[in-house]
Amino acid sequence: MAVTEAPAPSVLVDDESTPVRSRAWRRRLEIGVPAGLIVLIFGACFVLPLVAPIPKPIGGDILESGLPAFSPGHILGTDPNGNDILARILYGGRSSLVVALSVNVLGLVVGGGLGALSAHLGGIVDSIIMRVLDVFIAFPSLVLTLAVAQSLGPSQRNTILALAFFSIPAFARISRAATLRLREQPFMVAARLSGTSTWRILVRHLAPNIGPQLMTFAMLGMGIVMVIEGALSFLGLGIPAPAPSWGNMIAMGQLSLSATPMLVVWPSLALFLTVIGFNQLGEALRGRWSGR
Amino acid sequence: MDEQDVSKLASPSATRGDDASDAVTGSGPVPRVLPAVLSSPALRLAGRRLLTAVPIILGVSILTFLVIELIPGSAAQQLLGPEATPEQIQQLEAEMGLDRPPVERYLDWLSAAVQGDLGRSLVSRQPVTDVLGDRLAVSGEIVGLAFLVSLGFAIPLALVAARWPNRLVDRVSMVVSTTGLSLANYVFALLLVLLFAVQLAWFPAIGFVPLSESVSANLHSVTLPAFAIAFPLFCFYTRFLRGDLVEQMQGEDYIMTARAKGLGPWQVLLRHAFRNSAFGLITIVGLNLSALIGATVIIEQIFSLPGIGQLLLQAINTRDFIVVQACVIVFAIITVLASLLTDVLYAVLDPRIRYGSN
Fold first, then answer.
1. Closest to A6 (Cβ–Cβ): which among B60, B72, B280?
2. Which of A137, A153, A154, A126 is nearest to A234 (CA)?
3. Coil, strand or helix: which one is B289?
4. Which of A10, A135, A231 is opposite residue B247, by nearest beta carbon?
5. Burial (CB count within 10 angstroms: exposed 0-12, middle 13-18, buried 19+), residue B192
6. What is the pTM of this model?
7. What is the pLDDT of residues B211-221, one digit of tens each?
8. Residues 299-318, chain B: which have Cβ within 8 Å of A?
9. Counting beta carbons within 10 angstroms of the beta carbon of residue A243, is it exposed (0 to 12), middle (13 to 18) or buried (19 or more)?
10. Measured distance CA(B153)–CA(B155) in Å, rounded
């Protein structure tokens, strides 16, 4: 996972002539629309299969294979194995979202903590931690994920573990940079001088201040992880078939791209909508925290 | 251009307009920049960065070795297949030298590697450096082309968008780049195949023709993969450069000065704002280079290109530790060199960094 620490340009120009009220509305929409999209996607993947008559994503009837969209009982049709495409997209989304969430939560907690601790302690500890993380950043992420998938076998848990190796250094770098900026702030100096314990400084003083920035990165990270997870599944090293995932659905569809392009289009669309939702939410939050 | 001119190049009020765009595309600045590098603190910076790069690359090689050791099954086992008897496997492992303790094997590999010998592939018995050379040429061509295409389109578009913010070109370019940034590169690659190979049949869907065989066929075979890699980059660069330019044009004092002395809007944009924004762009291009390695693995898989990504994937599957190790080291060196080059280019272009306390 590549980390960009370059300055973030604001995307929209605040037009001075726009009335304040409509600008406030625009901001609300900038956050509300992608947030709503994400809630919808989560709901569709986790709740909809429980309440609606969605067929099973695997073990379809071979007699029902390759049905076109809008067939009775199969809104998006079926794949060559007779499985309902909509069901596969919803269940595949579950595993993608679980992987992306776990990887980012691990990165946020472990990486964020490590970066803050490293910057707070400084000196030799800081140097050692950062050098070790540099090695991981210089190491091509796909190689390690491929190797982990090969050695531990492709599974959801192993995908999470392998990807966490790369989200942790990324979060650590951002959290370290943010902590370094705060180090000499009066409230931090006061906390240190009054003999507050390291743990308490990290949790009570640092975390609330670097939290928003890390959360923003986590939103962008969700998109990144979903794309990488898809890539792994696409190469046959992520979620193992026949269990559905957007990546392995796209890979399967690639085999018959010219005959049935929709097999690729549907999961691609699902992936795209989810990623754009997280990206836009991340951007909107970033604009908000940076006090645009 | 002599050394003085180089330092002038970085100052916001520099008067020559054509240099900054060269610096970004990477075609122009090398010969001009060289004398400055050789006689300036930038050289010391480069030296220091090279020294810190050594432990990183060493760490990467150890990590790779550990990772390969952790994968069950050896190259011998993979070569002989599931039918082989344990004796046969043991014999082949002994021939390959895989029966020795891991630490000894790693140190052997390391002492040969520092002398430039990366060993022979366990599977094909070819020297790795030979294999790597051909593969790197393929991947290098695609990635180089992708950089050219993405920057070639992104820079003019971002300039036009920043010249008239919130007008039609700007809005369209923002919608396109926002969309493109959320599109996984493999999805975009498949869309390209669907449209240009399946529907229109303008380009081949898979395969690679070497440059030595036929130039036009070669370009034909690398167009789709290069565009598949270039599009996300193009979106990223357009968005970044446009945002940075607009920010510079709105708030910076030197822009006001330039306007006050009567420069036209294009001149202010090109000579002053763009020159400053180029710094950020250089950083991002440098960072992208390492992310691109992941992209080559999957794009080469989709288009069946004999590049380094495909080699790596095969080598992991056959447990060819020597080849995996070589690929990863090459990737790590490229990553480290890219970030080093970025820093040095910075120092060369910006006198504040060159003579700073660092």
1. B280
2. A154
3. helix
4. A10
5. buried
6. 0.74
7. 777 777 777 77
8. 301-302, 312-313, 316-317
9. middle
10. 6
**Per-residue b or e along B142-176, where b marks 16 or more CB atoms closer than 10 Å to that residue's CB:** bbebbbebbbebbbebbbebbbebeeeebeebbeb
| SS3 of B189-206 | HHHHHHHHHHHCCCCCCC
Which carries the bigger pLDDT value, residue B8 or residue B320? B320
Per residue in B129-150, pLDDT tens? 888 888 888 888 888 888 899 9
Q: A200 to chain B, minimum CA–CA distance in Å?
A: 33
Q: In the structure, what pLDDT confidence band is assigned to residue B11 with cuts at 50, 70 and 90?
A: very low
Q: Which residues pair with B127 in a beta bridge?
A: B120
Q: Between residues B290 and B202, which one has the greater pLDDT?
A: B202
Contacts of B213 by beta carbon, 8 Å cutoff, 6+ apart: none
For the segment A154-180, what is each residue's pLDDT rounded down to a tens digit? 778 888 888 888 788 888 888 888 888
Q: Considering only alpha carbons, which residue of chain A is nearest residue B193?
A: A257
Residue B321 above 50 pLDDT?
yes
- At B122, is the pLDDT very low, low, confident or very high (cuts 50, 70, 90)? confident
In this complex, is the C-beta atom of B195 within 8 Å of any C-beta atom belonging to chain A?
A: no
User: Does B340 contact A at CB distance below 8 Å?
Assistant: no
Give me the amino acid identity at B154. A
Query: In the structure encoding, which two tokens stand for residue B294, read together?
Result: 């992941």
Closest-approach residue (CA) in chain B for A1: B291
Distance from CA of A51 to the nearest CA of B (A): 30
